[in-house]
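Quick start: what a row looks like.
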Amino acid sequence: MKQLYRYLPLGDEILTRSLYVIAGGNAYLPPGASYPPSSHPQHHQFHWSEGRVLQEYQLIYIARGSGQLESTSGGLRQVRAGDLIALFPHEWHRYRPDPEIGWEEHWVAFQGKGAAEFMAEHSASPKVPLFCTGINDSLLREFVRIAEEVAEEAVGYQNVVVASLHLILALAMVSHQRLSFQATDVLGIIKRTKDLLMERIDRPTDMNDLAADLRVGYPWLRKMFRQHTGLPLAQYQTQLRLYQACEFLRNTTLPIAAIGGRCGFESAYYFARVFRGKIGCTPSEYRLQSRKSLPAIEEAA
């Protein structure tokens, strides 16, 4: 692979954006190669013995090889093929490929007044500077796209590279989560939890009893379920109940109070209040709107 890097000249309009790319590139470092490559600008050079501090954010994807990463907040970590390194401004760090193995790296640097929030939204922080994503062709493809765009600087390239930047972190976060879940029986437990919540949709569910039925502790189940689905257990079940209620409202002539009871709501008033809060209209309004688009409503069995 021919080394490619580009540090971009940026106009005032770009610098006012909440997120913009300032540099990007890729390189293959064979065993024994000096690091960083000597061709990089002096302000991005560093020695392993001293490390460095940047003024920008960087994401570095290691497609092949292995090495080390060390930072003030994240400590010393081993880096393997398929890992994504996240570097933060004002955070001392150092990283390098294994001198006996080398590595292939793809990187992008960015700034902007929304950059900190952007990283936080994707669970990246100085304490979590490494995502284990596995060998990910989709992730690599976005880095290649960024390298091509910054090399050409065609009209509108910043829009393209920022879109790729969003996709890179989204893919990295999801891949990291999926790999961590695959290493345990968590996926099976989460699936069984969803099944039980659906089975018990028509009655109150004690989450401690649910955890006991699954033979796991409730604090552990609550944490794992939220990490996997992005929702607390109770909120997930409420959404299931609302989806079921919408089905009844669209496809049956059951009284609204009866639908609320069938979907596990303790009273017609509570059902109506939750429905309006989440769906944006009352059950009666929803049913009326649905009838306008349906030729007929069948009686519930």
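That is the whole record. Residues 157-182 form the longest helix (26 residues). The mean pLDDT is 89.
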